[in-house]
Specification:
InterPro entries: BTB/POZ_dom (IPR000210), SKP1/BTB/POZ_sf (IPR011333)
Structural class: alpha/beta
Organism: Favolaschia claudopus
Order of helices and strands: EEEHHEEHHHHHHHHH
Number of strands: 5
Protein name: BTB domain-containing protein
Helix content: 40-55%
Length: 278
């Protein structure tokens, strides 16, 4: 006799009365079309084509008579993933601006369950903020789409991006992702919630990035100390109100004068430190 699930945490807008399948993730349940899932995903197609070993049709767990498929993924990721499949307006291609959390969820699960059109769309959204073109990246270093604005103040989000890019093997986006993460202060980045669970590979590369930055900052500070009087803009730094602007101007001028300070040190010229070890 088929068992009936006691869990009834239905997710609004993803509970269709004519759905032929209930997808369960943790305590959340989604009633959707199994045929549509199978058409979008080769993994779901295989999953729904063959019964689970040892279970007959009468043994499959059901809810209100509808068979249940259990996903071992977090509900907060499964929900945007299913919304992207069943709501055509939810996860539009660029220039739409979905939330970073939704992009990461869709990227991870569309890669896992082989929904190729959504995977490509998620990577398109990530490419807008993590450009593979150096000039574009440098021009937009401090700019983020509205959905990605949390990257400005939340080091944890950078760690989530790096983990995801490694997981889905999007290696071409790693240089700019590491470069952006390196803008976070080490004392904040290295105590972010997921730091302790990061793979050692990512931790090591982030330490290397910050070591590169430290080396170049030392060179820049040394240049400021020895070359300050030679920079015309420095003469205008007479009050605290004018100094902040003039210091930026001085540093810009120094970057043009000091040959051993490479402003692009942590991007393509050292991209070998960003890709996984073979």
């Amino acid at each position: 006799m088929a068992s009936e699930s006691n869990t009834s945490n239905r997710v609004k807008d993803l509970w269709f009365s004519d759905g032929s399948l209930v997808v369960r993730a943790e305590t959340s349940m989604f009633r959707v079309s199994g045929a549509v899932l199978a058409a979008r995903s080769t993994v779901f197609e295989d999953m729904l084509s063959f019964p689970q070993p040892g279970l007959g049709a009468s043994d499959v767990e059901r809810f209100e008579g509808v068979p249940i498929v259990e996903l071992h993924d977090s509900a907060v990721e499964v929900e945007p993933f299913l919304r992207a499949i069943f709501d055509s307006s939810f996860f539009m291609p660029p220039p739409s601006s979905p939330r970073l959390s939704d992009v990461l969820a869709v990227a991870r699960l569309s890669n896992k369950y082989d929904v190729q059109y959504l995977f490509r769309r998620a990577l398109d959204h990530l490419s807008n903020s993590f450009s593979i073109e150096l000039s574009v990246f440098l021009n937009n270093l401090n700019k983020f789409s509205p959905g990605f604005s949390g990257l400005k103040t939340t080091p944890e989000l950078h760690l989530q991006v790096l983990r995801l890019l490694h997981e889905v093997n999007a290696l071409w986006l790693l240089p700019s992702a590491y470069a952006r993460a390196a803008k976070c202060l080490p004392e904040k980045l290295f105590v972010a919630p997921s730091w302790s669970t990061l793979p050692d590979l990512i931790k090591t590369k982030l330490h290397i990035v910050h070591a590169h930055q430290t080396r170049h900052i030392v060179a820049l500070v040394h240049a400021v100390g020895t070359e300050w009087d030679t920079i015309p803009q420095a003469q205008a730094c007479q009050t605290p109100q004018t100094c902040s602007v003039e210091i930026l101007s001085v540093i810009s001028a120094l970057l043009e004068q000091v040959g051993n300070v490479d402003t692009e040190f942590n991007f393509f010229d050292v991209k070998d430190i960003f890709v996984p070890s073979v």
